[in-house]
Amino acid sequence: MTETILRLLTRLSEAGDDAILPGELAAPFFGPVFDRLLAKRVLVEHAPLADWEVCDACECGLPCRPIRKAGDAFRAECPLDRRQDIDLAEDDLRLFRIGGDALASVIGAAAGFRAAPKLAAEKVWRLGDTPAGRAVFLALEPAALTGDGIIASLRQAARGSDITILAPKLPAEAARRHRDAGFHLIEILEVLTPATNGLGGTIDIAALTPVPQSPVLRVRKATAEVQWEGRSVILSRQIFPVFERLLEKALSRDQVASGSHVEGTTAREAKDLIRELRDAFKAAGFTDAESKALIVTVRNRGYRLSLAASDIVFDG
Ligand SMILES: [Zn+2]
Asked: How is the chain split into domains, by residue range?
């Protein structure tokens, strides 16, 4: 994924209160978005650096080396070896502190939450609720989610709502505890995508809701009935054999039924049979998209059901 200033700051903020953005990393991002982040105090500039770390394995004994002005630029000089001198641009001496509260606010805005985040536990913000009513929390540093009592604190803050947590990668044990508690844990950098929206990033709110468990399809041959996603579809005696041919393929190694296989001994074209089959699902309340998602057209090859054999129960 393209690096953006917002993604960079999110990564650096894992260091917590010590999180800083050195000028040399900041320089490629100078521009309107950067200025906006300064204005929002996501970034707060420090006094410029006056010294630089000593060179690797140096025997000079200095704690650090002074930075001297050298013409239009600057130089960190090694007292022992001039070849180790480092030339620095003015931007290299700049230093920005990263403000956690302000960054949380910008990340919340990137996900479309209008209200300012509220602190729900130490260094854990509640960004808001999804349209479906999930409580969305944000932690910038892993340590915020590893402490004792954090599970109970978040449950209490959510007041019965389902919970999604945006966080950096957690230690495996902590991640397991949150998942065991039923929380939907998401790595921020997996959903914080670059955008040209003035913040330089966006989070698709749909990504904050867990993907439902794969649906199970139940088929009863005796009644020509198909149960899927909580609905029941009774197929006509003419169209059930078509579904049955797709079903047999879904249960076999090669899941795709060719057009001629779908047609079987009927005198009708496969595309008409498939349309009629999908219409039967739509008549039972499924949308056009849902019926096409279940009965998939495989270009130039035929048709298949979108389910794994393990998700199908066939009372044949
Ligand atoms: Zn040196």
From this structure: 5-98, 100-208, 217-315
